[in-house]
What we know:
heterodimer
Amino acid sequence: MLLSFLTTLSKWAIPxxxxxxxxxxxxxxxxxxxxFVEGAEEGFTTVIKIIPFLVGMMVAxxxxxxxxxxxYLSSAAAPLTKLIGAPSELLPLAVMRPLSGSAVLxxxxxxxxxxxxxxxxxxxxxxxxxxxxTTFFVLTIYFGAVGIKxxxxxxxxxxxxxxxxxLASIYICNLLFK
Amino acid sequence: MLNLIWLLLLASGIIVAAINGxxxxxxxxxxxxxxxxxxxxxxxxxxxxxxxxxxxxxxRGGLIRIIxxxxxxxxxxxxxxxxxxxxxxxxxxxxxSANILGLGNAATxxxxxxxxxxxxxxxxxxxxxxxxxxxxxxxxxxITLIPATIIGVRLSFASANPTEIVGPCxxxxxxxxxxxVSMDYWFRSRSRWKGTR
Lengths: 178, 197
């Protein structure tokens, strides 16, 4: 029940926003089309500003992954995952999660193909995927958009959220699905 | 810190490739990633334009301000350095709502708008403000009610119950959000920039 409500909500959210905001603006005597174009123009300049940041980050991550260094890091961390009750197949997922969204989706899809979506590994991979975010990507584009070069403690906070999300996923999966 | 992480990713990748005798993957990976990054940005332009356009209407009609005032009690605790009713608050709320609903496409433009508004309060510095750090802590650890992508993947591999992971996801994100917000709070309170920006 709750779930179908939520699914309906996320299906309707965008059409409703696109309806309600312009209608509201019109009532408030905003020249809606002109305001839209004026705002949309900003989209272009903002994205252009992100390009150098994103190129820098994506090149480093891609080299790290393609060279096999990521796999070494995963296997080096294998004893740690045994300790917390996570199958070692999930490690590349955990390591890549903050770095690359598309790589992680690929890895998770692969795990579900091999082990099945209803296996313990498949369920863990799903929960991990739904839990954490691509921290580096988010930081890169958001800070890039305003030209921030010193991220201060934002990286540590974001990575701690990823690690705790990973641990919490493993914990809840062991509790419910083992 | 970012400088070091960036260097480590790049250098360890190249060294590992060299040891394994396939240093040519580095060239291929670097060049295609550089192209890919621009591709990602180009895909973003249309979506950004759409949502920033809609957002401008909401702003001119005063809607953003109203939302910001309604959620002031929570927001002013999380973001003490942003004045009440500042447009940054409205953009932050819209970004987090879009994240919670799993509307990733709409979330990014709202988030960028929020960053731009916060940058105005940051006196053009190239260093992140406390409000930005808090915002990104919330943003990267935010709860998603419907993890649509992964449900889709599960469905495509004929899962008996594709949505059974929703509850566990909400549990796990709540934990990570709690950790992120507390850590951010801790950093903020012991920061040498305390009281400023």
